[in-house]
Specification:
It is a single chain. The protein is an all-alpha fold. The chain has one domain. The chain is built from three helices and no strands. Helix 1 runs antiparallel to helix 2, helix 1 packs parallel to helix 3 and helix 2 packs antiparallel against helix 3. The chain is elongated and about 50 Å long. The mean pLDDT is about 80.
Length: about 90
């Protein structure tokens, strides 16, 4: 298995976990906070969609482009994680 395919497999697992984490936030939200939650989830999903596009490019990248694509995907992942942590912290207030 090439480094790229290993990386792609790992990122697929992380993306699935991110979706589960976002979905789990919904269980912590009461009716009064539902509209704010829905807006924040919409923003999280937009961040995820942007990362998903980077991920699609990564999957199609040849070996010579791997390093650049991995850096781009890592940046997208870091952005997604930071957004998720912020929303989670906001909901905990």
């Amino acid at each position: 298995m090439s480094k790229n395919s290993e990386y792609v497999t790992a990122m697929q697992a992380q993306m699935r976990q991110f979706d589960k984490d976002v979905d789990a936030l919904g269980t912590r939200v009461g009716a009064s906070a539902r509209s704010a939650y829905d807006l924040q989830v919409k923003q999280l999903r937009a961040t995820r969609d942007a990362a998903q596009e980077t991920f699609r490019l990564l999957q199609a990248a040849n070996e010579s482009a791997d390093a650049k694509m991995h850096a781009g995907m890592q940046a997208a992942w870091d952005t997604m994680q930071a957004a998720l942590k912020k929303v989670s912290a906001d909901l905990g207030k």
